[in-house]
Amino acid sequence: MREIVYENYFWQNDLVRLRAWSPEDWEWDYYNNFDTSAMRLGDCEVPFPPTVLESKNFSEKIANLSNNTGRTYFAIETLEGTIVGRINFNNNDERNGTFEIALLIDRDYRGKGYGTAAMKILLQYAFMEKRLNKYCGSLLEGNIGSVAMHKKLGCQQEGLCKENIYTNGRYCDEILFGLTKEDYLKMIDFTNYTKR
């Protein structure tokens, strides 16, 4: 097989590359399912104890950009090929032009900008290729890293649903963020966009 040249590749930037999730990525899923704090912040609940079979089945189900879960899943890799996270894209409301993105970064790679870099790729795809109009994000209170990332991306806090999510023995607030295409266009560097 020929060596792949990535210099004009849409699905990467100076920090990460997105690729289709693969059935072989099940070990990453299995390992990260043991991070209960991250699972609670992302899914707003504590999952049952992980199993190898569950991770293999889930990885098979979401592999190869399959959309049979309603979401399209990507692996987030460094440019050297190390998997550092998973991100998914949900644009099931094309009529209204809204979409969601969710991600999980491995605990060993958090705070290094990988999540923000991956979000930038999917935001560009949604706004500039899919003609979508608004990103909608929903975060559990206490998700400090995701709140900071959303602000860095230019998202605005649009609301607070008080005591909307029950987890860890209490009702927690749900923080709503949004980013319109108009606001996105004010922030992006078109010289970098046109190079892709």
From TrEMBL:
Gene3D superfamilies per the UniProt record, alphabetical: 3.40.630.30
CDD domains: NAT_SF
Top-level lineage group: Bacteria
Pfam families (alphabetical): Acetyltransf_3 (PF13302)
Domain N-acetyltransferase per the UniProt entry, residue ranges: 4-182
A single GO molecular function term of this UniProt record: acyltransferase activity, transferring groups other than amino-acyl groups
Keywords annotated in UniProt: Transferase
Keyword set includes Transferase: yes
Protein name in UniProt: N-acetyltransferase
Lineage: Bacteria, Bacillati, Bacillota, Clostridia, Eubacteriales
